[in-house]
Design a protein that fits this description.
Oligomer: single chain
Number of helices: 14
Number of strands: 16
Shape: elongated
Radius of gyration: 25 Å
Length: 416
């Protein structure tokens, strides 16, 4: 029997069938292989196992009873169903083998820094992670998405984690969809409706309460981001930024954390989220701080970034951001936008240190603008309190508000 012993984990590779005809010999091989070895957990790799009968299940059960920490990986769909139907998946971790998918001829319907989305067929899309190769991290994102979906946030539900070359991906059932970014570029005449729906989506997210202790607190994350940049900051500005962040009201409402329009799909005229790895709870100022970054902040030290990343001109990207902010808060308030920028520059400095540490121009630019704003403001109060029941009226209310005030706030961009 083939095996691997590493870091206290012994992996046993089962080849062929695990049935009554060979159960006794397989069990004997297992005992012989494991005898005299020191390990804390047992993994059965069924990647080359084609069939498991009740006799094979009894061997697995004996291992569980004898060693306690036993798991199964790389089970084919048929073998996985056996473990699922017999209840074994409730007493030990059982993971399916990942399908391999070829996207070389697939249409790209969305792309970003962390992932690319392909259409596989009429009914299916796959989101391929550019910078994540840890299945546990992807499974965590999917759990967050399901949590949000149950609580009323429109998210796509996945059905499979797959391999795409040397990367990992997630399959979703999505009919006739495109990214909101592609929809805006393809149908600029509908920009007003997209702004209303986009804003309504943000309010739905930010008014949905969640008390799951596994959902992270975004304020805590931003304080950690600030610590990363502390060695590069003047102490007085670091202390003031820390004080302002700590003063932000704690809330148990969702914050998506990266809700720009490349992370949103349009399906049957409805906006649906497919990127949930940054889902947290906290105050909406953190939502808009994260949104300001791709629409505006990246352009400040890298002109033309919006055109390369979003496919729209820098001035249109800025107008889109301002339109959503004005509609969300019901006013055009420069002080409110400045306070959002304070939090956004904390995010941008962290992002730069983690992802582009050699780009001193961007870091210094964000730091300088942060210092200027910290000299002007002594709080981060943006006057936002939403009742949970309000979101039931949001689309109609936002539509009416837009019709009454859209031109006043300058929402008439992309009109040619």
């Amino acid at each position: 029997m083939k095996f691997n012993l590493e870091n206290g984990v012994i992996t046993l590779f089962i080849i062929g069938e695990l049935s009554s005809t060979n159960a006794a010999s397989v069990e004997a091989d297992m005992d012989s292989t494991m005898q005299g070895k020191s390990f804390t957990s047992v993994v059965l790799d069924l990647g080359s196992c084609t069939y498991v009968s009740s006799a094979g299940l009894r061997i697995v059960l004996k291992l569980k009873q004898k060693y306690g920490n036993v798991s199964v990986i790389n089970a084919s769909l048929e073998v996985y169903d056996v473990f699922e139907m017999t209840g074994f998946s409730s007493i030990m971790p059982v993971k399916k083998a990942m399908r391999t998918i070829d996207v070389s001829n697939a249409e790209v319907i969305g792309s970003g820094f962390f992932s690319t989305v392909y259409r596989l067929d009429k009914d299916t899309i796959v989101k391929v992670f550019n910078r994540t190769s840890d299945p546990e991290q992807i499974e965590r994102e999917l759990r967050l998405a399901k949590e949000a979906f149950v609580l009323g946030v429109p998210t796509a539900i996945s059905f499979d984690i797959v391999r795409v070359g040397d990367k990992l991906g997630v399959c979703f059932e999505m009919l006739d969809c495109m990214s909101l970014k592609n929809a805006v570029v393809a149908h600029p005449e509908n920009i007003h409706d997209y702004v209303v729906k986009y804003t309504a989506l943000l309010k739905t997210i930010n008014t949905t309460e969640c008390y799951d202790p596994n959902i992270p607190d975004i304020k805590k994350f931003y304080l950690e981001k600030l610590e990363v940049s502390r060695p590069m900051m003047e102490e007085k500005y670091y202390l003031k930024a820390k004080e302002l962040l700590e003063s932000v009201e704690d809330r148990q409402t969702f914050v998506h954390g990266d809700c720009h329009f490349k992370n949103i799909m349009v399906q049957n005229d409805e906006l649906i989220l497919i990127d949930m790895d940054t889902l947290s709870v906290g105050h909406p100022i953190f939502e808009f701080a994260a949104i300001y970054a791709p629409y505006c902040a990246f352009n400040e030290d890298d002109p033309g970034n919006s055109e390369r990343f979003f496919g729209i001109k820098e001035e249109d990207s800025t107008r889109l951001y301002n339109a959503v902010v004005d509609l969300y808060f019901g006013k055009d308030d420069p002080a409110l936008k400045d306070k959002i920028r304070i939090v956004s520059y904390v995010h941008m400095m962290w992002w730069n240190r983690v992802n582009e540490p050699s780009n001193n121009k961007r870091f210094e630019g964000c730091r300088g603008r942060l210092y200027q704003l910290l000299d002007q403001y002594n709080d981060l109060d943006i006057g936002v309190l939403f009742e949970r029941t309000y979101k039931n009226k949001m689309p109609a209310d936002l539509r009416a508000f837009y019709d009454a005030n859209g031109r006043l706030f300058g929402f008439d961009f992309f009109d040619g």
